[in-house]
Recover the amino acids of this structure.
């Protein structure tokens, strides 16, 4: 399927990005390897090889996982109650080497909601590979992720629900009020935030 898309298709860019060859080349993370996702993980767009090298020099490790993002991630929440919303299945993979490193890690930083969803799907199911329909919203008990780097997301999105589940609804609302007031950038190439208030064992 990826080869067919490469021959006959175009990268599915967000509507606010002009579809040029340059934009298609830039709408990708420096660590992407496996074709199949419908979109780039936007938090990862902030990272360069220099930044990743800095993480390693500081004593951290950089581990790779895969989540083939589908349309379900971007489908707005239309249900009256969050618990009634159903996510579409997305394929994920946590390599064995990554699983070992994460098990030994003192603190796990997820770069993006897609990475967080992958790690939590693995932690909840015990399966390193498969399909996930996990929907994370306030009240969720975190099992794998201690810190989250994420962009600013749209209202009524599953991504915003996850962020609120991690950092708390009121804190996130305050952060978004500041973002709107200070004219932060949203969407794929927008501003990002580091959340440290959530973590494993919290609800």
């Amino acid at each position: 399927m990826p080869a067919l898309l490469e021959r006959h298709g175009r990268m599915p860019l967000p509507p606010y990005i002009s579809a040029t060859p340059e934009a298609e080349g830039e709408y990708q993370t420096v660590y992407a390897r496996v074709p199949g996702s419908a979109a780039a993980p936007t938090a990862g767009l902030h990272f360069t090889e220099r930044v990743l090298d800095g993480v390693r020099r500081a004593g951290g490790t950089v581990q790779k996982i895969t989540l083939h993002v589908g349309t379900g991630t971007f489908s707005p929440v239309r249900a009256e109650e969050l618990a009634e919303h159903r996510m579409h299945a997305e394929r994920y993979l946590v390599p064995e080497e990554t699983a070992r490193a994460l098990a030994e890690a003192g603190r796990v930083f997820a770069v993006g909601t897609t990475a967080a969803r992958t790690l939590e799907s693995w932690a909840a199911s015990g399966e390193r590979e498969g399909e996930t329909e996990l929907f994370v919203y306030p009240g969720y008990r975190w099992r794998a992720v201690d810190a989250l780097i994420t962009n600013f997301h749209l209202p009524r999105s599953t991504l915003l629900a996850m962020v609120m589940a991690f950092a708390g609804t009121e804190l996130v609302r305050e952060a978004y009020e500041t973002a709107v007031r200070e004219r932060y950038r949203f969407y794929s190439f927008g501003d990002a935030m580091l959340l440290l208030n959530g973590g494993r064992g919290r609800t």
About this structure: The two ends are 39 Å apart (CA to CA).
